[in-house]
Amino acid sequence: MNLDTQICDRARLARDPRFDGLFFIGVLSTGIYCRPICPARSPKAENIVYFPSAAAAAEAGFRPCLRCRPEAAPGSPAWNGTSATVSRAVLLIRQGELQEQNMEDLASKLGVTGRHLRRLFQIHIGASPKTLATTQKILFAKKLLSETDLSVTHIAFASGFGSIRRFNAAFSKMYGRTPSSVRMRNNESKITGDELFRCTLTLSYRPPFDWQRMLEFFELRAIPGVEWVANGAYHRTIRINETTGMISVAPSPKGNALLLTVALSDSRDLMSIVERVRRMFDLDANMAAIHEVLTADAVLEKSVRKHPGLRLPGIWDPFEAAVRAVLGQQVSVKGARTLIGRIVAKTAPRFESPDFRNLTHFFPTAHELNTRDLGAIGMPESRVRSLQALAEEVDRENLFFVVKESLSDFIEKLTRIPGIGDWTAQYIAMRAMGEPDAFPAGDLGIVKAMRQADKRLTVKEIRQRAETWRPWRAYATMYLWHG
Q: Which domains does the chain have, with CATH numbers?
């Protein structure tokens, strides 16, 4: 991946937070790499080399800066300047894909060979998939060392390492010192009397970020018993692998960051949970690049100026997104929320918390939904059949929420399921997969927003108009919905 040296120079000298995490600065005289916002005195230009990722800097032999903490930087947008295959691989690796599977398994899931995937990573990321995964684990461990009071043993396993020995060796190789020597006790994390692991982590983002609009979006669609929005914060129950618990997300008082608080039955899935939350709130988006494209269109320009930093809201679990999309067909948001609340109450396991009595259930898995009677919940029989067909496909592992060859191929596969049309499939791609170019062109809100004087555009005309919004049509959808 080629970086524009002139742009990087300007961003570095200005310490512009909009570029934080989009590139890293290697200092040849010290062997350290930094974020563009590092407060240290700027090195001489001849001693600087730029890297597209922390993994690329690590592979080149540079150590992370202990002052600006590269582990605290916003993630690079998975699709920013990379091929579609690489962007999806990065997302899967961040979610811990290589912890349980090998490179060939990852490549197969993406529809390519391992050799081809490694070649693409060198071109676009500047490092191998393995280096990216290892760098992510170590940087996450450093984050836990800096922001929590977890023991080194807890941190090793929470970061995805299989043994303390491997963790210490990998950490010492990257930082040149042991984990315990860089520890900073700024926070409190512990196993409480109720046997839940609790901690609070800071998740950075690049400004601007319209938190209020994001929160309103989640509140309007909050599933009764599973999600709850109150006092400027979002709360929900979660399940991942064997780990259960709840999360809370709120703005950080220090700015340009959210605070994630977790209460979990096990800390080993913490890194995957953090990555899912980053995706839910779209914290790695490069809004400057998105705005540059969208403001060129007269229809979108006013909305972008009115609501800068409007992100793409995700969903905790892809299957949940698919269920929401099916239930949202031809009904209001309020109506869909009522239906999904009935399904949860009828099919999902209960959750109990003395702190959040509004949270009473987990969201059902595909197996739980597939093996329950969905009658008498107020849905048309055809909708029930569609939901059961979807749950069966996911339960039998015939359907994976991973885009392989292209977005259009993924949409085509989804629409083979009875009752799932283009709108539903595009909505799933937007919110479950975080696909930035997904576009439900036939959505009524989009059709109304695109109306020109007394003329109502056809879906074909809307798609033609939207060609200039690529690859950010999903973000255009959000701006059209907000007006």
A: 5-72 (3.40.10.10), 84-182 (1.10.10.60)
